[in-house]
Amino acid sequence: MIDLRTDTITKPTAAMRQAIAEAVVGDEQKREDPTVIALEERGAELLGHEEAVFVPTATMANQIALRVLTEPGDEAIVGGAAHILLYELGGAAVHSCLVMKSIEADDGRFTAAQLRGAVNPSGDLHMAPTRVVCVENTHNGGGGRVWPLGQVQEVTAEARTLGLATHLDGARLVNAAVAAGVPVAAYGREFDTVSLCLSKGLGCPLGALIAGSRERMAKARRLKHLFGGAMRQAGIVAAAGLYALDNHVERLADDHANARRLAEGLVEAGMPVDLEQVETNFVQLDAAVLGLGADDAVARLRAGGVLLSFATRKDVLRAVTHLDVSAEDIEEALARIPRALTGAPVVDAAGAAPTPY
Ligand SMILES: Cc1ncc(COP(=O)(O)O)c(C=O)c1O
Questions:
Q1: Which of 4, 197, 232, 261 has the fewest beta carbons closer than 10 A?
Q2: Atom of ligand 1 at shortest range from CA of 138
Q3: What is the 58 CA–ligand 1 centroid distance (Å)?
């Protein structure tokens, strides 16, 4: 089975497991774990901020950032089908009592003018004060699209003029930086807070970072504990993070090349893939053009030996390249996908719906 559902499914490599086994650890909650402290220092530098805090998940990093930057009853603005809006269980409402507004943008990237148009009038007696704008880079729902640094700078400059705080959901920020040929910190320092996931393209078993000013990170550390995220001998996993930052950053270009090869091969085979959308490690395939619903298409692919997942748009499938998929796997997937999607329909004896994730 070739598993292209998502880049979160990677398993630690033998060398990463070795780094984990050799990790020097202490009580992270008491700030006595040297490996966690080393990862936080490294993360702060990478992300272009004074301080970083190690947390278990990117969801927690995003939710802590929103809480640090806002007051209950504030409004947060996001672009398109943002992860923070759609896939964090309404956490912004639960943890920070926020109203959310989404700027229409198919690929998740919006402009400074769109931001200006979306902000509630300042001082309005009846409307929630717009307090923060969130950018997602790369944009998951948009198909792994990369924000050009110039467009980010226009949006963050507009946010500052409007008196808004800024957060970057950088779960896949390193993919964006590698694809754009821009240092990670050049993106990171544009924002008040930045999150980064270590367990996606970077290949760690778990872990994320949130970065910002010393003052904001002092609040973030308190919130991490409040949310139940203060750990103990967490150096065991922080060691994987340090290993990934040393060894798994440049290789993201291989994942991007594999995605490009997959997309081009699928187009050659007559599959409905828009090459322009392929900027990092995501390939979107519009099953509707083949007359297939997403469930049917996923079931056919599973029977044909390839796993894809659902994209945000209806009847669009997503293939994601990652550390555990080789160039040979991509060639094999190129043989299997067209065969599965254009062959006879799959009859599932149990009648069960396929599992998309
Ligand atoms: C853009 C984005 N942000 C945040 C997250 C949350 O990551 P996690 O599920 O590891 O908390 C994801 C996960 O897919 C994501 O794609």
A1: 232
A2: 1
A3: 5
- What pLDDT sits at residue 312? 87
89: left (phi over 0), alpha (psi -120 to 50) or beta: left
Q: Phi and psi (nearest 5°) for 318?
A: -125, 130
- The residue whose two tokens read 């993070």 is 241
Separation of alpha carbons 242 and 245, rounded Å: 5
Burial of 83 (0-12, 13-18, 19+ CB in 10 A): buried
Q: What is the distance, to the nearest Å, from the Cα of residue 241 to the centroid of all Cα atoms in its chain?
A: 16
In ligand 1, the atom with minimum distance to the C-alpha of 62 is: 4
What single letter denotes the amino acid at residue 262?
L
Q: How far apart are the first and last CA of the chain?
A: 15
Task: Compute CA 267 distance to the chain's CA centroid, rounded to the nearest angstrom.
Answer: 26
Atom of ligand 1 nearest to the CA of 199: 10
Both tokens of residue 333?
């997937």
CA 275 to chain centre: 21
Q: How far is the CA of 57 from the centre of ligand 1 (A)?
A: 8
| pLDDT surpassing 90 at residue 353 | no
CA distance 10 to 255: 12
- Average pLDDT (272-299) is 96
Give the mean model confidence (pLDDT) for residues 88-116.
96
Which of 183, 148, 179, 165 has its CA nearest to residue 45?
183
Give strand pairing partners of 75: 99, 130
Q: Cα of 354 to ligand 1 centre, how many Å? A: 22
Contact in structure between 56 and 276 (CB atoms under 8 Å) = no
Token pair for residue 92? 């912004």
Q: Measured in angstroms, how far is the CA atom of residue 356 from the centroid of ligand 1? A: 16
Ligand 1 shell residues, CB under 6 Å:
57-59, 62, 83, 136, 140, 169, 171, 197, 199
Q: Provide mean pLDDT across the span 172-180.
A: 98
Q: Which helix (H) or strand (E) holds 253?
A: helix 252-268
